[in-house]
């Protein structure tokens, strides 16, 4: 008999499983609104021009394949920190931070979770917004943390339950950990306005909570990297020493290269050095050191003025296309004769939209129209094109009228 | 890391060629790989380890998890074992690591949650070789179901491998006592120059009916160190068991790195799936292995010609990147401080650091260290 006789079949990953089901579908009108990967207006993956240029530049340098340091490519981590914190950030200029390269957003979240488990003795509790990205829970759980929640999304209005959030957060036990989505909340697309962020920061400060920011969409949400990082920068200015997971999967289209950065804002540079040494001790038995390819590309882009400028334009282009698809979806729904209020589709921001569709409606969309999305009614607007937005509106109208 | 005779890093010619092919292929993009990795990479990587005619592959009872280097493969395997092996979440299962071993082995299994990490006898300092009796004795007395981390070839750091006959003895005890083999294969091809020869132990265990894990690294044999290319090969009793095991490994991967990096896997997959490129790669690997073998024989012959006290056959009997010279810490200190030759306090040298230009100097320095310092 086998050692694995008692091993249960794991459930298929809900998010990535959507793509797999989509691939099997033979309907020519099928739409994949599952995984959060950007598509151009032809529904094709988009390799940024600045990425292609950076790749060509890297190739011409004929670099070696020697191991990176455990903490990753220094030019990349420094540029990532500057991108997130802002070049005028006191925390950045004083050097009271440490940034290590991580395996995209997931890898950074996991390093941070493991670090908190080992060194944040005040609490095991991580508070996630309700709802949050599906993978947050198992990541923190596998790191040995416990998950709690605070109100966030109001299904009645398809927008932020601000008073509920403030109410819940003001009751979180002191020195707990709270996770916040920096911008383009996943899965709802619902972000606090700046005045609301200010209030949240005040409550968080009052409760003496450790803030963990997840920023996977800087630039990709509004089209403006500074605007999208506003909350992160504001919290730091308010004296909150946050930890931050950054992903370059979406805003640079480097998904499969696994490019990310994990930052800890510290009291001073000395503390940062000590934290760094412990992060390395966590990383080494996980994968020794990170992959170079994506980090070199990202570093080339961020550190080469012309490429950086081009990148900012391309990121804005992606954000603008998504905003335009939101607008078109709403107008098409109106044209279909839908009487529902679809304003949340244009109020929400970023790659995802919480349509408000119920599981039975989602199932019909998948089965009858070959429109694939996750059961919670989340669609990836990036999968919508001017060619299929009409079909999508039609399908949604059919299951909601 | 490997160095050329000029002491430089070496990007394999076949790797340069394949990278150019990838760069020129406009149909390629940077989309996510599946959680378990690039299918063509996974299948080819496991095929390299187990052999084209592997019965396990034919019987469809082999699974593969693309990982971040050998370390990543070890970690995923360790995390799975801690959750699912010998009961559910049995952190008390003893894990045996060779004495000495790569120092990260301990940390990988510790961070995966194992509480009882032990050593098994391996290096005999007195005879500068394998302590087979000690090893077999540890296998006999290890609690049933213990996990043993075995170096598939080119043991790190001693360079001392069991002979096929000795592997047979090891396997016999492990089978009788229901011990779990977890192979670490970081040097396939790089050790002897032959992929098949370097995989002999893993394949033997498979032929003996073991369920096992093999953590593979392509860092050294492809020179792809910083692309983090590895693979966890899982051999099970049958397809169904392997399938369920892999579905649970997916969950572990998803909370560790979600899905693996694509660049290195593409290079390896492209190379291994083309007969021509595969031959080219084998040639590149043999180039590296042969240079190391040459340095070994040249160092040994110089030491013997100098009449350096002691025996030096272990230099050529050992295999792979590293050699346990037998120098003691004081002699090592002499080498470092007086001769500016850098080696580990254990007496381990990296053979790749030797070149035709520095052989004489290194040999003379060892001679001095051994004669001047006791």
Automatic annotation (TrEMBL), chain A:
<dbReference type="Pfam" id="PF00155">
    <property type="entry name" value="Aminotran_1_2"/>
</dbReference>
<dbReference type="InterPro" id="IPR004839">
    <property type="entry name" value="Aminotransferase_I/II_large"/>
</dbReference>
<dbReference type="GO" id="GO:0030170">
    <property type="term" value="F:pyridoxal phosphate binding"/>
</dbReference>
<keyword id="KW-0496">Mitochondrion</keyword>
<comment type="subunit">
    <text>Homodimer.</text>
</comment>
<dbReference type="InterPro" id="IPR004838">
    <property type="entry name" value="NHTrfase_class1_PyrdxlP-BS"/>
</dbReference>
<dbReference type="GO" id="GO:0004069">
    <property type="term" value="F:L-aspartate:2-oxoglutarate aminotransferase activity"/>
</dbReference>
<dbReference type="InterPro" id="IPR015424">
    <property type="entry name" value="PyrdxlP-dep_Trfase"/>
</dbReference>
<feature type="domain" description="Aminotransferase class I/classII large">
    <location>
        <begin position="29"/>
        <end position="396"/>
    </location>
</feature>
<dbReference type="GO" id="GO:0006533">
    <property type="term" value="P:L-aspartate catabolic process"/>
</dbReference>
<keyword id="KW-0663">Pyridoxal phosphate</keyword>
<dbReference type="GO" id="GO:0005759">
    <property type="term" value="C:mitochondrial matrix"/>
</dbReference>
<keyword id="KW-0808">Transferase</keyword>
<dbReference type="InterPro" id="IPR000796">
    <property type="entry name" value="Asp_trans"/>
</dbReference>
<keyword id="KW-0032">Aminotransferase</keyword>
<comment type="similarity">
    <text>Belongs to the class-I pyridoxal-phosphate-dependent aminotransferase family.</text>
</comment>
<dbReference type="InterPro" id="IPR015421">
    <property type="entry name" value="PyrdxlP-dep_Trfase_major"/>
</dbReference>
<protein>
    <recommendedName>
        <fullName>Aspartate aminotransferase</fullName>
        <ecNumber>2.6.1.1</ecNumber>
    </recommendedName>
</protein>
<dbReference type="InterPro" id="IPR015422">
    <property type="entry name" value="PyrdxlP-dep_Trfase_small"/>
</dbReference>
UniProtKB/TrEMBL annotation, chain B:
<keyword id="KW-0808">Transferase</keyword>
<dbReference type="InterPro" id="IPR000796">
    <property type="entry name" value="Asp_trans"/>
</dbReference>
<dbReference type="GO" id="GO:0030170">
    <property type="term" value="F:pyridoxal phosphate binding"/>
</dbReference>
<dbReference type="GO" id="GO:0005829">
    <property type="term" value="C:cytosol"/>
</dbReference>
<dbReference type="InterPro" id="IPR004839">
    <property type="entry name" value="Aminotransferase_I/II_large"/>
</dbReference>
<dbReference type="InterPro" id="IPR015421">
    <property type="entry name" value="PyrdxlP-dep_Trfase_major"/>
</dbReference>
<dbReference type="GO" id="GO:0047801">
    <property type="term" value="F:L-cysteine transaminase activity"/>
</dbReference>
<dbReference type="GO" id="GO:0006532">
    <property type="term" value="P:aspartate biosynthetic process"/>
</dbReference>
<dbReference type="InterPro" id="IPR015422">
    <property type="entry name" value="PyrdxlP-dep_Trfase_small"/>
</dbReference>
<feature type="domain" description="Aminotransferase class I/classII large">
    <location>
        <begin position="2"/>
        <end position="366"/>
    </location>
</feature>
<comment type="similarity">
    <text>Belongs to the class-I pyridoxal-phosphate-dependent aminotransferase family.</text>
</comment>
<comment type="subunit">
    <text>Homodimer.</text>
</comment>
<keyword id="KW-0028">Amino-acid biosynthesis</keyword>
<dbReference type="InterPro" id="IPR015424">
    <property type="entry name" value="PyrdxlP-dep_Trfase"/>
</dbReference>
<keyword id="KW-0663">Pyridoxal phosphate</keyword>
<keyword id="KW-0963">Cytoplasm</keyword>
<dbReference type="GO" id="GO:0004069">
    <property type="term" value="F:L-aspartate:2-oxoglutarate aminotransferase activity"/>
</dbReference>
<keyword id="KW-0032">Aminotransferase</keyword>
<dbReference type="Pfam" id="PF00155">
    <property type="entry name" value="Aminotran_1_2"/>
</dbReference>
<dbReference type="InterPro" id="IPR004838">
    <property type="entry name" value="NHTrfase_class1_PyrdxlP-BS"/>
</dbReference>
<protein>
    <recommendedName>
        <fullName>Aspartate aminotransferase</fullName>
        <ecNumber>2.6.1.1</ecNumber>
    </recommendedName>
</protein>
């Amino acid at each position: 008999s086998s050692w694995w006789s008692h091993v249960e079949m794991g459930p298929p990953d809900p998010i990535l499983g959507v793509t797999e089901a989509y691939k099997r579908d033979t309907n020519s009108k099928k739409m994949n609104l599952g995984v959060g990967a950007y598509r151009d207006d032809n529904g094709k993956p988009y390799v940024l021009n600045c990425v292609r240029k950076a790749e060509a530049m890297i190739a011409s340098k004929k670099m070696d394949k020697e191991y990176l340091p455990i903490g990753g490519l220094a030019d990349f981590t420094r540029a990532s920190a500057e991108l997130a914190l802002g070049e005028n950030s006191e925390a950045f200029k004083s050097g009271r931070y440490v940034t290590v390269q991580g395996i995209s957003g997931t890898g950074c979240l996991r390093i941070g979770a493991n670090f908190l488990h080992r060194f944040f003795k005040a609490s095991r509790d991580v508070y996630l917004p309700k709802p949050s990205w599906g993978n947050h829970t198992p990541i923190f759980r596998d790191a040995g943390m416990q998950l709690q929640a605070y109100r966030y999304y109001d299904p009645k209005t398809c927008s932020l339950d601000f008073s509920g959030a403030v109410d819940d957060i003001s009751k979180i036990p002191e020195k707990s950990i709270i996770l916040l989505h920096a911008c383009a909340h996943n899965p709802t697309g619902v972000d606090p306005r700046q005045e609301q962020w200010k209030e949240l920061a005040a409550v968080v400060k009052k409760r003496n909570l450790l803030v963990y920011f997840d920023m996977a969409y800087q630039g990709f949400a509004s089209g403006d990297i500074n605007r999208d990082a506003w909350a992160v920068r504001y919290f730091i200015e308010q004296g909150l020493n946050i930890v931050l997971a950054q992903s370059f999967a979406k805003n640079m289209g480097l998904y499969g290269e696994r490019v990310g950065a994990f930052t800890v804002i510290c009291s001073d540079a000395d503390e940062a050095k000590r934290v760094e040494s412990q992060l390395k001790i966590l990383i080494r038995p996980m994968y020794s050191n990170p992959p170079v390819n994506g980090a070199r590309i990202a570093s080339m882009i961020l550190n080469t003025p012309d490429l950086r400028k081009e990148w900012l334009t391309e990121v804005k282009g992606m954000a603008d296309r998504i905003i335009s698809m939101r607008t078109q979806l709403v107008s098409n729904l109106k044209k279909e004769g839908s009487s529902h209020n679809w304003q949340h589709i244009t109020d929400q921001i970023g790659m995802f939209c919480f349509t408000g569709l119920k599981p039975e409606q989602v199932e019909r969309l998948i089965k009858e129209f070959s429109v694939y999305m996750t059961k919670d009614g989340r669609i990836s607007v990036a999968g919508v094109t001017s060619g299929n937005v009409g079909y999508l509106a039609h399908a949604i109208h059919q299951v909601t009228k | 890391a490997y160095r050329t005779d000029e002491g430089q890093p070496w990007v394999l010619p076949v790797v340069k060629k394949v990278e150019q092919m990838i760069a020129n292929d406009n149909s390629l993009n940077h989309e996510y790989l599946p959680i378990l990795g690039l299918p063509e990479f996974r299948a080819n990587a496991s095929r390299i380890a187990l052999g084209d005619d592997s019965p396990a592959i034919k019987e469809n009872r082999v699974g593969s998890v693309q990982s971040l280097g050998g370390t990543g493969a070890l970690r995923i395997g360790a995390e799975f074992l801690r959750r699912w092996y010998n009961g559910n979440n049995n952190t008390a299962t003893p894990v045996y690591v060779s004495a000495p071993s790569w120092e990260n082995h301990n940390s990988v299994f510790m961070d995966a949650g194992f509480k009882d990490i032990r050593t098994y006898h391996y290096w005999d300092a007195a005879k500068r070789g394998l302590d087979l009796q000690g090893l077999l004795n540890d296998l006999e007395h290890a609690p049933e179901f213990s996990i043993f981390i075995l170096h598939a070839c080119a043991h790190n750091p001693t360079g001392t491998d069991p002979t096929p006959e000795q592997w047979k003895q090891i396997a016999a005890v492990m089978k009788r006592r229901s011990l779990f083999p977890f192979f670490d294969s970081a040097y396939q091809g790089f050790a002897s120059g032959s992929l098949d020869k370097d995989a002999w132990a893993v394949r033997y265990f498979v032929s003996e009916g073991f369920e096992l894990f093999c953590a593979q690294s392509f860092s050294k044999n492809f020179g792809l160190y910083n692309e983090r290319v590895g693979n966890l090969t899982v051999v099970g009793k049958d397809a169904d068991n392997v399938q369920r095991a892999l579905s649970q490994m997916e969950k572990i991967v998803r909370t560790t790195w979600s899905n693996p990096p694509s660049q290195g896997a593409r290079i390896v997959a492209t190379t291994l799936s083309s007969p021509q490129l595969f031959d080219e790669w084998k040639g590149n690997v043999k180039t590296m292995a042969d240079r190391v073998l040459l340095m070994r024989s040249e160092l040994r012959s110089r030491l013997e010609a100098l009449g350096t006290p002691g025996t030096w056959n272990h230099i050529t009997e050992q295999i792979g990147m590293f050699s346990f010279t037998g120098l003691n810490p004081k002699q090592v200190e002499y080498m470092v401080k007086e001769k500016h030759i850098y080696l580990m306090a254990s007496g381990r040298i990296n053979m790749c650091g030797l070149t035709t230009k520095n052989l004489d100097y290194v040999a003379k320095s060892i001679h001095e260290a051994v004669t001047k310092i006791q």
